[in-house]
Design brief:
This protein is mainly beta. It is built from four helices and 33 strands.
Length: 493
């Protein structure tokens, strides 16, 4: 369903003819707001007068049906005549509407296609647009025009509100099918009837398959998590059977492939992505970004739209007029996407440039000045190194792996941190880092991080666009609430 969006003019472009600014210092101040006779541009009768201004960016749209340049003026006085034409300016060339008499207090002309190309409008077209108004006096002796207000109306079809919901459902289904579904039938006495469907159940058994070969042991972290999927009772024996589904391999808090083999675009077509229910993904960038999409086409990602290129999501530093992006997911008390107590993280990164001027962030989750989680490449402090840094209770700890990455090369990066139970036989609060199936040097923290009620989990920058920016691409982002084994951390993701 089409909607209409009003876009304000945002900056001065050009003005000509005989004019006077009334109530404002420049054209934008005079016609950027609808304030009646308080401010306006007074065009006199000395000749044609024209003004053009920049326009605000349009929200992401599936299609744009029309662009209308509209505004308000005070009609010429008695005996004074003149005509008006609306202007759209594209790439330095002005295109004019039909000439019309000025016989009321408002104006407006629409273009259903881009007059420069003859093709339907795009988001990029509108975001690069300049608009304005041309005044032509017909009675030079006394004609004047008060141009009071200019704005743009865009008729567009926005993305469906169901896109994210549909993506989440489909992405979760794909994730669960990617991992082998393992079921176990547990038989017991009538006390099993206390279980309900979908209840969480932890099992201990020496025969349970585990990388250590020791089964599912009795420590909290050694028990195997299951959920109840079926219940039945044999009335002859009064025995209860519970069919349980293994949850170990699918307890993922965030999964974002950040890549698809389809053409990119505002919707990120084909990209699998989900997070803990209630968490919201956000991407911001203050400028357009021209890039090559997954099918080899040149594409322009408009303001705030992710640039999904060949291989992954672009997180490039600001350069050549391009702003640095920021990409993050919420992490709050109702939707945790990074576990502070214990957990694991994996992704792949590709550095476009390897420089010694700044840390390059892979992922970052701050809580407060004394507690944070940060995975990054450090070319400054010492020998080039990958770092998993945790600050807990005001003290900073680092697991490190010395390495100098090559540009335009994909690396699998992982970080793991144990909790108070000392998972996998490590000491409590042990930090480990893995790069391309090589384990670095561990660090042992003195405590777990303390969580705050609300924070964000950033990928590719440190809590703000351009801060310790990953100058490259990122993909296959995974955050787990469980402490993965060495084998699990080193497997391909």
């Amino acid at each position: 369903m089409a909607v209409s969006s009003n876009l304000a003019v945002t900056a001065n472009d050009a003005i000509s003819g005989g004019y006077t600014y009334v109530g404002g210092a420049d054209a934008l101040a005079c016609v950027g707001t609808d304030d009646g006779a308080t401010s306006y541009i007074l065009f006199d009768a000395s000749g044609n007068g024209a003004v053009t201004l920049d326009v605000a960016n349009v929200a992401t749209s599936l299609s744009i049906l029309s662009v209308t340049v509209a505004g308000k003026y005070l009609s010429p006085g008695p005996g004074a005549t003149g005509t008006g034409q609306e202007i759209v300016k594209i790439g330095g060339t002005s295109y004019y509407s039909n000439s019309h008499a000025l016989n009321d207090s408002s104006f407006g002309s629409s273009w259903s296609t881009n007059p420069a190309t003859g093709l339907p409008w795009t988001n990029a077209d509108v975001n690069a647009l300049k608009v304005g108004f041309l005044w032509t006096p017909n009675n030079p002796a006394g004609s004047e025009l008060q141009l009071r207000y200019i704005y743009v109306i865009v008729s567009r079809i926005p993305p469906s509100s169901t896109v994210d919901v549909t993506r989440h459902i489909g992405s979760v289904a794909l994730w669960m099918r990617k991992r082998p579904e393992a079921f176990l039938t547990f038989k017991g006495n009538l006390d099993l009837l206390n279980l309900n469907l979908l209840d969480a159940v932890d099992l201990e058994h020496t025969a349970g398959p585990h990388a250590t070969g020791l089964g599912w042991e009795d420590e909290v972290w050694q028990r195997r998590p299951f959920s109840v999927h079926e219940m039945s009772i044999d009335l002859n024996t009064m025995r209860v059977s519970a069919r349980l589904k293994d949850q170990r391999s699918i307890r993922c808090l965030v999964r974002d492939l950040a890549w698809s083999d389809k053409a990119s675009g505002a919707l990120g077509d084909g990209i699998a992505r989900f997070a803990t229910p209630g968490a919201v993904f956000t991407h911001t960038r203050a400028s357009e970004h021209s890039f090559t999409n997954p099918v080899g086409e040149t594409e322009v990602a408009t303001v705030d739209v992710p640039a999904y290129g060949l291989g992954g999501l672009y997180m490039l530093s600001a350069s050549g007029g391009r702003a640095a992006p920021r990409y993050y997911v919420t992490n709050n008390s109702t939707a945790r996407t990074l576990s502070a107590a214990q957990g694991s993280f994996q992704c792949e990164v590709n550095l476009a440039a390897v420089s010694a001027v700044a840390n390059q962030t892979v992922a970052y989750c701050p809580h407060d000045a004394d507690n944070w989680w940060w995975l990054y490449w450090d070319p400054i402090t010492a020998t080039d190194r990958w770092v998993l840094e945790v600050r807990a209770a005001g003290t900073t700890y680092r697991a490190i792996l010395p390495a100098t990455p090559s540009p335009d090369t994909w690396y699998q990066i992982g970080g793991r941190w144990t909790g108070s139970n000392g998972e996998n036989g490590d000491a409590p609060f042990t930090l480990s880092i893995f790069v391309d199936r090589v384990k670095g040097t561990d660090a042992v923290a003195g405590a777990a991080m303390s969580e705050v009620a609300s924070s964000n989990f950033d990928f590719g920058s440190k809590a703000a666009a351009g801060t310790d920016q990953l100058n490259g691409q990122i993909r296959k982002i995974h955050s787990y609430q469980d402490v993965l084994t060495d084998t699990e951390m080193m497997r391909a993701i």
